[in-house]
From TrEMBL:
Intracellular or extracellular location(s): Cell membrane
GO cellular component terms, semicolon-separated: plasma membrane
Gene Ontology MF term list: urea transmembrane transporter activity
Boundaries of every M23ase beta-sheet core domain copy: 411-501
SUPFAM superfamilies registered for this protein in UniProt: Duplicated hybrid motif
The protein, known as: Peptidoglycan DD-metalloendopeptidase family protein
Domain of life: Bacteria
Membrane topology: Multi-pass membrane protein
Length: 736
């Protein structure tokens, strides 16, 4: 009973706090606490807002809605705004208490309604429910004869004296005098107006909360407002009007939304947020004049209209690889989103979520790539032709090359590049003699696989009679499809491979990167997360190492002992548990420190996605050492990627970088993992690896030597930037 009550109280506190911070698109508790304090500068306004929040949370519980969504404040932040508005306009009383509950209910049901509609298009409903609730209440107000206006808000000095005596009055007057006619007075008033607190102190406190939460959001709030302020002046409008209309928050929120939240912070998102300000200025002025006829304020209508329109336009772009990039997963602040996005090895291909791998085994060479010299043009420009070359002679055939059987790729197996369904098969076209082509049956023997509703792959010029699948068959990645041949428009044996948007043999090609393959650069193999193979690239799929595969294969609930020691201390034991969150995301949880390492293991690679928590945990050094591991048996392999810089640097360098994120990420963190040649080639008992992270001018920030044993133990010797040596030992207690 006690535990249940404690859990319920924690849930209620969490949902209440995020109702406040959600207005700035975050769940930051420090900012939320500051916003609650701000809302209570005028006590009745603050109390009205809190009652509205609790009403919305209670309704969400009553209707048994998702506790996760409720805890994020998505059902209640609009109710909060309605409650704050009611407390500002109407004097305290039981009648007004009824209006608060009714207004919160209107905002809640409107949020549910608009959430359902907008979710279909992947766009947010923002503060539309607040507008619906607030406008309905104000339009109905003339009929409420027992409800009085809150006259205290007309005499703020008296109100401040009641709240904090002469001290608070002096603070308010001092701030007003200090910022008078600087533009900052209007900026702070606009920030405070978001919470219906029309004083500079509120704005100062909110800006401080923004600065603590996110340097990017703080910067964007300033830039967004002062660009609009300049526009008002440039268009000949009285900038002082922003002091009493308080519409400046539209520009602040839009700059934060576009520049830092819904888009990954970048030069493009920053520029777009600036370009939208003139549009918002015109929309705000026009909305204000229109709503004057109804004796209503436009409130946040300009922000909602422009933001929803822009986000929808960005969502339906054909090419999602070009900036600005939409934020797919929102983390604690825009800086973190930017740093993690920057560390993605194939960030420009992030929108291509279906992995398509090489359709063959062994080493093949790209003979013709995209926009090829011969046939890959126009509708068919996004295709590849693959052949096999002799490594010593670089020839693609033996002898004179006069017979199809002279060619190394002929009769070699072709495999499925991904899970899919066979939707088209042609298996009766004769193979050509060398130099001859069959233009009547251009693609020759072909298999078309469907991977998604919109994504198909086509494998052509296969050997007659070699295809071993039928229409309707479900195939898995790597499954045998047929053999490379010389059918169709093919003067010499090769495999034609393309992605397309239809099941038709001969359909137009579709731009799509290939995933997780190796490129042979003579002296070593380079790993490519996602990429477009180029002409003459020699490629191969990842050949899995049983030792690495076993060492990184963890089941939910598995526990590990991770011991950490340096040259002077005894080993400290950390208990690590493998868990899965509600979003089906795997993570390692340090039970000692509650640090979490989110990761993905797709059977070919182990990739750390994010680390949250104390850097004193042994799990952090495990994360730094094994940030990206290809589970390959090749010993001449090199893996290179970017490491998130916010896990490498501290104040003041990181703080400066935070402010500069919209203009570029200048701090460096380059991660490299190299595979050491084993002493015993066959039946090796261990695999040795070396990882390092370097910054500017190749300064070493971290390095480690790693030994992965056949019994699943992992030993790591780390050197940090502070020249300290740390020894880690990873042991699966299940197999201990």
């Amino acid at each position: 009973m006690k535990d249940k009550l404690l859990k319920k109280s924690k849930f209620l506190l969490e949902a209440t706090l995020t109702s406040y911070s959600q207005i700035f698109f975050t769940e930051n508790k420090i900012l939320a606490s500051i916003l609650i304090v701000v809302s209570f500068i005028e006590w009745w306004t603050g109390l009205s807002g809190l009652i509205a929040v609790l009403t919305a949370i209670a309704l969400a519980q009553l209707f048994d809605y998702s506790e996760i969504t409720t805890e994020k404040g998505l059902y209640s932040f609009n109710a909060l705004l309605v409650g704050l508005g009611i407390g500002t306009y109407f004097a305290p009383g039981l009648e007004v208490l009824l209006l608060i509950v009714a207004g919160a209910a209107i905002a809640f049901f409107s949020a549910v309604f608009f959430m359902g509609i907008f979710a279909k298009y992947g766009i947010p409903f923002l503060s539309i429910p607040f507008l619906v609730g607030m406008w309905l209440l104000l339009l109905a107000f003339p009929s409420f004869t027992n409800v009085a206006l809150n006259m205290e808000t007309l005499y703020p000095s008296n109100m401040y004296f009641k709240m904090g005596g002469d001290v608070l009055v002096s603070v308010m007057e001092g701030l007003s005098s200090f910022f008078e006619d600087t533009g900052f007075d209007t900026y702070f008033l606009s920030l405070g107006a978001i919470f219906f607190q029309f004083n500079i102190l509120s704005g100062v406190l909110i800006s401080l909360g923004l600065l603590i939460h996110s340097r990017v959001n703080f910067l964007l709030s300033l830039v967004g407002f002062f660009v609009a302020y300049g526009m008002y002046s440039y268009l000949g409008m009285y900038t002082g009007s922003l002091n009493y209309t308080y519409y400046g928050f539209n520009f602040i929120l839009s700059a934060i939304a576009i520049g830092g939240y819904f888009l990954i912070p970048s030069r493009q998102s920053f520029l777009l947020s600036l370009l939208l300000i003139p549009v918002l200025v015109v929309t705000t002025i026009g909305s204000d004049r229109l709503f004057m006829y109804f004796e209503l304020s436009a409130y946040s209508l300009p922000f909602n209209v422009i933001m929803i329109g822009v986000l929808y336009a960005l969502k339906i772009r054909y090419d999602q690889t070009k900036g600005p990039i939409l934020t797919l997963v929102h983390l604690k602040n825009p800086e973190t989103n930017a740093y993690l996005f920057d560390s993605q090895p194939a960030k420009k291909y992030a929108a291509f979520t279906v992995p398509i791998r090489l359709p063959f085994m062994g080493k093949w060479t790209v003979n013709q790539a995209h926009n090829g010299k011969y046939t890959h043009k126009d509708f068919f420009r996004f295709a590849w032709d693959f052949i096999i070359k002799d490594e010593a002679s670089s020839k693609e055939f033996s002898g004179e090359g006069l017979l199809v059987t002279d060619y190394y790729c002929y009769d070699k197996p072709v495999v499925a590049p991904a899970l899919g369904t066979v939707v088209n098969v042609l298996n009766t076209v004769e193979d050509n003699e060398i130099g001859a082509t069959n233009t009547l049956q251009n693609w020759g023997n072909t298999v078309v696989l469907q991977h998604e509703n919109y994504l198909f792959s086509k494998l052509s010029h296969l050997k007659k009679g070699s295809i071993d699948v039928n229409i309707g068959d479900v195939v898995v990645e790597g499954q045998y499809i047929g053999k490379c041949g010389n059918s169709g428009r093919s003067p010499y044996p090769h495999l034609h491979f393309q992605l397309q948007g239809t099941s038709k043999i001969g359909g137009a090609t579709l731009f799509w990167p290939l995933s997780e393959y190796l490129v042979d650069n003579v002296s070593k193999l380079n790993f490519v997360q996602k990429g477009i193979p180029k002409e003459q690239d020699t490629l191969l799929n990842i050949s899995i190492s049983p030792i690495l595969q076993s060492a990184f294969k963890w089941s939910p609930g598995d526990e590990f002992q991770l011991s950490m020691a340096n040259a002077f201390n005894k080993p400290v034991l950390f208990t690590i548990r493998n868990e899965i969150d509600i979003y089906n995301q795997s993570f390692l949880n340090c039970l000692n420190t509650n640090a979490k390492l989110y990761y993905e293991n797709n059977g070919k690679t182990f990739s750390a996605l994010n680390y949250i928590g104390s850097k004193k945990s042994a799990l952090f050094y495990f994360y730094s050492s094994l940030y990206k591991v290809v589970l390959s048996e090749h010993s001449d392999l090199s893996v290179a990627t970017r490491f998130p810089v916010h896990h490498l640097y501290r104040f003041p360098m990181l703080t400066i970088q935070d402010f500069l994120v919209p203009f570029g990420i200048f701090l460096k963190g380059n991660y490299n993992l190299s595979y050491i040649e084993p002493e015993q080639t066959f039946n090796s008992e261990k695999i040795e690896l070396k990882s390092k992270i370097v910054g500017h001018h190749k300064v070493s920030l971290f390095s480690s030597e790693i030994v992965v044993h056949k019994n699943r133990e992992i030993n790591i010797h780390c050197d940090t930037s502070k020249k300290s040596k740390i020894i880690l030992k990873w042991k699966n207690t299940l197999y201990a």
